[in-house]
Amino acid sequence: MKNWGPANLCTQEIYDELKTLQTGCVVEFNQHVQDGTKITYFPTDVVDGELTPPPASGHNPFRKVGEKTYYLPFDYNLVSQGRTGGYDYDPLGPSCWFTYGPGKGFTASHPFPAEAVARQIRQGWKRGVANVLLATAPDHTGRMRSEDVEQLRQLGRILRGAEPPQPKPVSLGCHATASSVWENKPEWGPDKAVDGNSETRWGAEMGTKQGWLELNLGQAKRFDSVRIEEGWGRIQRFEVQVKEGDQWRTILDGKTIGPYFIRQLTPVPAQYVRLNVLEARNVPTIWEFQLLDRSGMGK
Where are the domains of the chain? Predict the structure, then answer.
């Protein structure tokens, strides 16, 4: 159960009353957006972090409160929708808990890419969550939109392993450099954007709203697709370029990227490739910048 409690009752009184009414019920007090290392309200039967997964070290369900140790599993609450002006703390981008359809003066929401939602779910499982909740809902007409239904169907296929495998990126593990790095710390270095791990990322320096990520493939390699995973939906204008002699040539440009961006291109061979962020509303951060050769399956 999740709710805001009566102002005249403390957490213990609410918990005891609920357990009196139904002994076997599970009581969950909202711990707010955090990684579960903090217990804001107690007693509770479950710890949650809303949109935040447990830390990389994993969730510790055995927690000592006072003189006793309690078993407190983690409940991970994801949302399926994004919306302009939504919550900025969701790594998939500005998000919302409900579906907003056109009309009624609402800015319509959009389903996040199923691949990105699946990545967050798998990350939660890996870090020891006991339960994953995905917030999705009909819009104000009472209907599930066709795009939301398709998102859930595709998500099911991905989690069951029914989707065809992606080719191995020709850029995997290549040498990468960047315009800047968050606090010059190696854990946010450019190599994290080409390691094939969606839990690591490159982050530019604090306060920057532009920057670039450059890949050296070692030799000219053919690719026909670009795949980018961006954190927090910050980028507003970008371009992908290849180096020809001493000049950079733009082969792709656009505005937003988001959590799962993929575009097919006219096949091009190149050794040096650059993601150039021209405008962002906050510090650019990239989980993965991948170059794919779909015709050759990355070989």
Answer: 1-164, 175-292
